[in-house]
Fold this sequence. Notes:
15% of the residues lie in helices and 41% in strands. Helix 3 crosses helix 5 (248-257). Strand 6 (88-95) and strand 7 (98-104) form a beta hairpin. Its cofactor is Ca(2+).
Amino acid sequence: VFPETSLKVTGVDFLKSQNTRQHHTDGYNIQSLVVRRGQPFQVQVSLSRELRAADKLTLRFGIGENPMKNRGSLLSLKPEREDFNGWKISMVERKGKECLLSVTSSPNAPVGKYNLHVKTGSNIYKPENGVIYLLFNPWCEDDVVYMANDAEKEEYVLNDTGTIYVGSAYSIYDRPWNFGQFEEFVLDACMYLLDKSKLSLAQRRDPAHVSRAMSALVNANDDSGVLLGNWSGNYTSGTSPMDWIGSVTILQKYYKTKKPVRYGQCWVFAGVLNTVMRCLGVPCRCVSNFDSAHDTEENLRVDVYLNDKGEKLNSLSFDSVWNFHVWNDAWMKRTDIPNGFSGWQAIDSTPQEQSQGHFQCGPCPVKAVREGDVYLPYDAKFVYAEVNADRVYWVVKKVNGKDKFFKVGTETQAIGKNISTKAVGQNRRVDITKEYKYPEGSKEERMSMERAYSFLRPSGLVPRSGYASTMQTIGANTQPLVPKEPVTKTGLHLEITNTEPLHPGNPLEMAITVKISAPGNWTIDLIGSCQLQYYTGNVQANLGTLKETINLEGPSEMQIPLKIAPDAYMKTLSSVEDEVLILVTAIAEVKETNDKLTKETSMRFQYPPITVQMPETASLYNDFNCAFIFKNKLNVTLENCKLLVEGLGIFKMTTFELGDIMPGRIMKSEIVCTPTRLGEKKIVAKLISNQIKGISTEKGIFITE
Length: 705
């Protein structure tokens, strides 16, 4: 009689199509199996002979360079045995030499790449392509990223396109962005970042640690991460931040070169971090905060310095108000802090301030910001200031050859407006300010503010300019705890609007409306200025000023026009690499009462649209034509025009060089599209030229079988 033939494995089938469908991972463009933790998946093992009672069959899952059982990085699983580190495995059926096994990983298993080996007796079988990617699982109730609502998971985990809101509180607009978390090499880039983060296995279990590490690695500042930030206006040694339309090109390039990609600004950092979190399975959204306070050094105040013409001065300010700032919210249960702070957590990968020695920010519970619990980890004080600081205006005047500062206004409700994100399942903006703040003036707001102030140290009202020696102390009255709009004796009120569309090449026609509600005869000195500024608040050019004295018989109002000729701004517009906004500042002073009021408004230029022509539906692998049409309705030639287009699952990022487009000219570019994926897909287009940096559009198409 021959000795027992030893049992050998002859093959392993990862049953990719059924597993990925059940795990909502069938979108990933990757050879290997991708599954989510805490949910069963099946593998079929083929053997050299039938399995007998005495045979030993073990599945070994190893993670990392050198997997070891005692470190928890090697899991050795036998069918029907007790679980191992929360993993279990069971025999579904045995048919001849085939065994169908079901594997359930622990709902808090470390996320990452696992290698599967099958051990039978003393034989070890290593399947080719035996790598399994294990992700967070918002569909699993025991996973800390569990999200109950299906439509929300569809949006925050599975949607690979979206919208980032930019502009200014006065004129918000949407910038389409392709997240592309399922595209080739994107998951591998995320796995590379996880390895690079040096997180321990235990930390890889927790989305709080993972999201914090990713917020650090998406910027290049201390760890040669994905993106190099640049706000200088000079991008010749890389790609201008305005020229990206999605994260895919950035992450693919980074994965290929392992070097930081040049360049990003806040919406690019947020777009890429959103891709990374969704790719790893953590629900995530991009959040835009309008009039966002930066670098307030926890004193919850931003000082704005104006000259006596009412023009904003860059040089004196340490802190700034950005027209908008974009960060992300990631969804998770926080196990490291007291109950009640689970749900959305703010994370921010734009490098602004160091946190624990690195440029990283969050996760900060959004509820902690609303409730004023700013002591909670991580970086709640910073996020609180971004949405709650006060803005104080100072006029700088020379007195006996020295700069003196005169306070001309305080705004307590100007920061943190219109906090926005894309709606679930729809292409529209939804305002989530109430998730970050209680209504202005409510009792809850006052309580939240008192709590926050007890952990922060708001300083007295002293200007924080770079010239400490010339500082004039204006009384060390700290902030009142009841915030109110500055009430003036005369009920003075200012409004700034545009009276004509703000088209590049046309005169900019704006108006400052002065209102007075108190009866009587009033004399008002008004100064106004118009400047071009970057979204970070950095002034690029002074365009013009006005100075008038007006008499009002209260209660009444008067509109003072402010008009800027095209020559005053077109040169600047063509020479800067960034999109600029029009900043109008007004200072009014009532002579009789000394009432002072300052108001500023930022507006964006308005552009002609791009139209996309294509069918509403198409079928898989069948070509269709897509045309992009743009008519230059402006009075200026648009020089060096480039059209950037991308359609995930339809065609790769493509650039059309269009040269100069004269006024009135129509340009048409066509592309042949081959859809490779089913369902609702989007095509995104963006036109850039010397004069205009951001005309973009998107259009959806439904792909059927």
